[in-house]
Amino acid sequence: MFKKREKRDPYVWEAIISILALIVPISLAIVKYEADAQIPILIGVLVAALMGMRAGYEWKEIEGGMLDGIANSLQAIVILAIIGILIGVWILSGVVPTLLYYGLKILHPKIFLPAAVIICSIASLATGTSWGTTGTIGIALIGIGAGLGFPLPVVAGAVLSGAYFGDKMSPLSDTTNLAPAMVGTDLYTHIKHMAYTTGVSYGLTLVIESVLSFIYGGGQSDTASINQILNGIDAQFSINPLLLLPAVVIMFLAYRKIPAIPGIAMGILAAAVLGVIFQGNNFGDILSASFAGYTSNSGVAAVDNLLTKGGFESMLYTISIVLCAMMFGGIMERTNQLRVVVNTILKKAQSTGSLITAAVLTAIAANLILCDQYMSIVMTGKMYAQSFQDRGLHPKNLSRVVEDSATVTANLVPWNTGGAYQTATLGVPTIAYLPWNFFCWISPIVTMAYGWFGITIAPIDEEADQKPVTAEEHEQTASSGS
Which of 19, 218, 292, 356 is the most exposed place for a label (fewest CB within 10 A)? Predict the structure, then answer.
């Protein structure tokens, strides 16, 4: 289509056209037409490729960028698939029903939302994975919240707030290890510095969730509805405390730094064995639930809605979104289109506050455009490291900014791997839970405010003798998955 040109950096207007070609069609599809996002994303892929060719990139390079983008998402795709299997097998085996049963008996509506935040925080801190937390304890809390009469987007927001707090603060988390490794500081200096902003964001979240819990759960509990759900669960499953063991197995393996994929697989195997013992499942039942999910036929609508889900098949839609989105992100990275926009922004960042704000907005934009939190962390960390150093700022300031923006906002973008996964797992659209996911959108606001007011902004000579995390140390520590 284009004659061969000398390769150059794309012009800013070319990169902006590519970005708009992604965001505008997706927004129209989701908001106005209530259509799926895959084809609009492919429109963005086409335009980004054309802009790359205008800048002199050959098709082989652009295609290579697409394939690299897909390759970067393969671990996430595998985790998506096995989480789908886990959900189906955990329901069939009675693990999720047992969590629901005991949760409905123990959790009071007036404390449910802050309790959900804290429970998910503890689980995510212990395992270092937001995805594993929402895919196990999160789906149980969604069911408990529904049983208690809470709107599902509100419950999903509480679950995600807790899960991402633990993810960004746990020394077992891959994002918590990746961020300091990208900017040249060490893990525990990074975590300690994050506590200043994260503590404020987390405290505000708990206050808001406590108020909402009182509003939604402040009336008389609908004991008749809860008893109906409990009876519906009892009618289908044998409830036993031993069925909580698979959740304990996953947490223990994550604590022992077993990688996410084999750790989740062991959780599936443990549930399958217990399902044979307590539910009388056979091998065919397990295979069916693993692929197509579990179908509840209790006759109680609330129970059937809660427990009809899971399976490998349920994740195929989400996997298709991830593949399309990563094609776009791969082109934008290979052809330097996002980089030229960021370089333009950097020229206008004249103060510490504006520099930190620029880094936050870049990380969020990277989640929108590159469609993956790891790419956002790496790109933002690498692109701003020199600018922070030139301004005399300690690298831990940048690693904190990256975590306060790139890590927590990925799940707020419907076509990002984070948003696509959480929607598929929790059964709540990203747009629906976004305003209720307080921790994840308060965090970037707090870190920008700290930048503008100079709160806990450390100079470069502070702890200058800290040893940066090596690539080998990062590989050994970051093994818990998303």
Answer: 218
CA 35 from centroid of its chain's CA atoms:
23
H runs (alpha helix) in 299-372:
301-307, 316-334, 337-347, 352-369
Inform me whether the pLDDT recorded for 27 exceeds 90. Answer: no
| Domain extent listing, the chain | 74-315
Confidence of residue 477 (pLDDT cuts 50, 70, 90): very low
- Under a CB-based contact definition with an 8 Å cutoff, are residues 66 and 332 in contact? no
Q: Which of 438, 407, 400, 447 is nearest to 129 (CA)?
A: 407
- C-alpha span between 106 and 121 (Å, rounded): 18
Cα–Cα distance, 224 to 198 (Å, whole number): 40
Mean pLDDT (the chain, rounded): 86
Task: Please choose, from the candidates 250, 197, 217, the residue with its C-alpha nearest in 3D space to the C-alpha of residue 407.
Answer: 197
The DSSP annotation for 303-317 comes to HHHHHSB-SGGGGHH
Contact 141, 441 (CB under 8 A): no
pLDDT of residue 479: 44
pLDDT one-digit tens code per residue, 66-81: 999 888 778 778 887 8
- DSSP class per residue in 256-298: TT--HHHHHHHHHHHHHHHHHHHH---HHHHHHHHHH-B---S
Is residue 2 scored above 70 in pLDDT?
A: no
Cα separation, 173 vs 217, whole angstroms: 33
Global pTM? 0.78
The DSSP H or E segment spanning 72 is: helix 59-72
